[in-house]
């Protein structure tokens, strides 16, 4: 099992308070704001943007979460919150446009959405993406394909978006909140989950969490020499050029080519895999290099498939989104293809993508789309998201893909995921509708408690003890419990553009304006929701979703058969309804005739 050497360095909220009393107040660093508490920062050259920090973790039992007094926690947050210089918002009184209750989004004063509401829109942000580099690099040599396949990373070779949709991505970044690991939208929260990574990328989400320890210069140098077969002078020159334990992606391509020419296949495989993750799931803000610490993950090419690469990719994406959601941040890294394909799946009306006519469900779902050069504008998507209703969302878009990638129990794991010492919460209880369940008011993220890295690994291995249970199916798919939206709008900032609430679109446009948005589903008669009629109705719903989501291509045999099945199903329901209405007055009574 992956481990982090030594005790995890971090501070509790109480020690943080004592330090705050002794030190002069100053603007919090990005890492402190990302975590909310704790001070540990992984060392690394700032020019490469590889520094990371993690939540502080107390020594608690891995199987029993530490109970948290939410009122006491909120009081501590209010007492010890470091307010940005010049910020005049009264945290106790909330923020214009929300949140009114600041117990959930404790770092909102530093958030880009807060600045936008105050009329301070962010300057242009740079997106770091390596789609073009990966495409130019091409497919791996046939001799190393077994190594790449065994690693579990082979699907990444075929998932290439050359042109990230900047306006689309940044509009979602404005709605990301690190406290909940989710996007806050007008109707509640949504997020990229382990299940999304499993379906979109076909990366494994079961296995060991990654423990890539930071390396000093000498250890990194020896690692490059031993694992890539590079001469000491050449390796030393590269690390000196990068000013630390990093190597350039272009340098890796040269090493790979040289190793292939010399038929040094294991060295070539490691160079290829390090370049692959550096261009995809572990893209950093340097835009040119990758940390040598990741090379150690490929030391044993026969066993590197034991890692939960999907959990690592998700942790890194959460980290980059959390950093980019801060008002002062000017770059966004991470695997933007994962985020962009997730948006396409759940929000079919957004973006300018095209769907492949010959897409095969055996392939990763992210390969379903063709991305044009033309991007959306940020202002365009920002307005679209503010006007989003239930009709614009596909909560569970992977129905036709479940034969290839079924919903796994670990996707409902509630707890921490990590990449080295970078730690984030995975909270599917906040986005239950994405799994087909009714959304309830979720517990506080702090209720999970704080854990050491070793305990996080132990809980992950015993994930079955920490998955959600006893959930109710969502009928209709946007169902939430009574009062959920009122609670959400108290603790969130659901709209980015300032406006009058009464002028906002109702979430369910087909309903009258005065009908509350979180109106619970009407109770149906037994005949309409159960038995043969109910089964046919559910089948019709699934088939219609396949047509609407273009899971079947128009004009194909599958499309014709799907529509024929829809016609037959609807006709059967109509005939059943007619016959049932004809016998309504005598239903349940014994006939008196004869």
Core attributes:
594 residues, mainly alpha, two-stranded parallel ribbon, 36% helix, disordered N terminus, disordered C terminus
SSE arrangement:
Layout: H1 13-22, H2 30-35, H3 70-80, H4 112-117, E1 126-127, H5 131-137, H6 145-151, H7 166-173, E2 176-177, E3 182-185, E4 188-190, H8 194-201, H9 217-228, H10 232-242, E5 246-248, H11 249-261, H12 265-279, E6 289-291, H13 309-324, E7 331-332, H14 336-346, E8 354-355, E9 369-370, H15 378-386, E10 415-419, E11 422-426, H16 453-461, H17 484-491, H18 526-529, H19 531-548, H20 557-582
Parallel strand pairs: 1-7
Antiparallel strand pairs: 2-3, 3-4, 5-6, 8-9, 10-11
Helix pairs in contact: 7-15, 8-13, 9-10, 11-12, 19-20
